[in-house]
Amino acid sequence: MSRFSIRRCHQADFPAIWTIINDGASAYRGIIPADCIRDPYMTTEELSHEIASGVQFWGCEENGSLVGVMGSQDVDDVTLIRHAYVKTDYQKQGVGTELLAHLRGAASHSVLIGTWADAHWAIRFYQRHGFHLVAHVEKERLLRKYWHIPNRQIDTSVVLTDQHSL
Fold it and tell me: pTM of the full predicted structure?
């Protein structure tokens, strides 16, 4: 039995979601291109926009406190995993695994995940859970079709999928 519980996040969780995203994103410092990282990594306005655009956050709790979050967003014929972050003190303890399993189990479509190409630990995490990298040409097509991100981020990202063909 897990020490964690998974639940859907609500508006009252907004400050905790924002804090977890920005704490967890500290892992990217020195890894992703300097022109792609800011402080804070995600502003409250950007988080509000993501939620308004349909990203539904799920949280992993321990003793009633959120320790990790992961969003899902249905776009056309796929489910995107968005903004997967775990508090620094809880990383490598199974939080991401539990969140991913929950969201993947609830997905009604093929699942796509975008992450930074230089975040090798994130790529390995998703690969351990049955995802595989798509080819470079396919990556660009998928990022342009399903995400609304800058060209620079498209250039420095990868896409993983749980399907062998989309």
Answer: 0.94
